[in-house]
Design brief:
alpha+beta; 5-stranded mixed β-sheet; 5 helices; 17 strands; disordered C terminus
Length: about 325
């Protein structure tokens, strides 16, 4: 299900019930195209039954989390409610038969990126596409002047060795070498920590989320009050040729799911549902020499203060 709404500076919560049971409960909506601009985000959830099945549904967007499902209306499942993928062997399923419930909740912390690139890509090219999206966002946000031809999907696919059978792991090692060889003003850090990923996105860094079968650029991380996290990614859910008569166009979405640190698994994101988190690959601009000087000076002053502090602690009496 794709929801279109106006982005706000305050939290908004999406709720959807089917036949009296929650399918989406208190999932937050981000201002991905900016405050006051129309934006869309996609959610997957399970509905049992063939086309023509009658259902009751309730839907709402609220300023605070809801405690019970919303009022229901009648609807009939239509063919448009079917989702298919050539990367899943051509098997279609009713809206999200694979994913389970999407249950959010009150927000404790979070960060998001606005106006993030999201490109169509060829079959099994998710890794170079996610990195290309990220580097193009960095290039635009920070004015890095990276040559456009160095950060395209095709250029990165050649570096990673990507084919229509996928991308060999660990592609991030090849990317790190490429950034250095081409003197692109970006450095990367690889982490498995969701807390580090949250800090990175809040600091204006970009990142890719990796599971064994899929990679996608992350545009939003929200920490919930129960220790779980909402994660939104920008990716192409219809990978494949997009020319005349092809079915690969129109699959780029911002899609939201849940990450549970207790299980290490992701729920609700296409090609990542039920998969274990592999890592996050974080990118950020390399500071200019003047910035490095300020950082080094700052660290020096901090060290002096720490030494003074430790000295005073050593003089305490009991």
């Amino acid at each position: 299900m794709t929801v279109t709404y106006e982005g706000t500076s305050l939290p908004q919560y999406l709720n959807l019930s089917i036949n009296g049971s929650w399918k989406i409960a208190n999932m937050s909506l981000g201002a991905y195209q900016g405050i006051g601009s129309e934006t869309s985000v996609t959610f997957n959830f399970g509905i049992d039954g063939p086309v023509g099945t009658s259902i009751d549904y309730g839907f709402s967007i609220t300023d605070t989390p809801m405690g019970a499902p919303v009022d229901a209306f009648d609807a009939i499942l239509q063919p448009r409610d079917m989702i298919g993928s050539q990367n899943q062997g051509g098997v279609a399923w009713l809206l999200g038969i694979a994913p389970g419930l999407l249950i959010g909740g009150p927000l404790m912390d979070g960060g998001l990126h606005q106006r993030f690139p999201n490109q169509d890509c060829d079959t099994m090219h998710c890794s170079p596409a996610s990195v290309s999206n990220s580097l193009q966002w960095l290039n635009s946000k920070y004015g890095l002047k990276m040559p456009a031809d160095k950060i395209t999907i095709d250029a990165l696919a050649k570096v990673f060795g990507t084919t229509k059978n996928g991308t060999p792991l660990p592609w991030w090692d090849k990317k790190e070498k490429y950034l250095k060889d081409e003197k692109l003003p970006v450095y990367q850090v690889v982490t498995t920590s969701i807390e580090e990923a949250l800090k990175a996105i809040k600091a204006g860094k970009d990142l890719e989320l990796n599971t064994q079968p899929h990679a996608a650029a992350v545009v939003d991380i929200k920490k919930l009050d129960d220790g779980r996290y909402e994660i939104a990614v920008a990716h192409d859910t219809k990978q494949g040729p997009s020319g005349a008569g092809q079915s690969g166009a129109g699959g780029t979405v911002i899609e939201k799911g849940i990450f549970d640190p207790k299980t290490g698994k992701i729920n609700g994101i296409t090609w990542m549902d039920g998969q274990t988190l592999t890592n996050f690959v974080v990118e950020a601009p390399i500071p200019e020499p003047a910035t490095w000087l300020m950082l080094v000076t700052g660290f020096g002053l901090l060290g002096s203060r720490l030494r003074v502090s430790r000295g005073r602690q050593g003089l305490s009496f009991s």
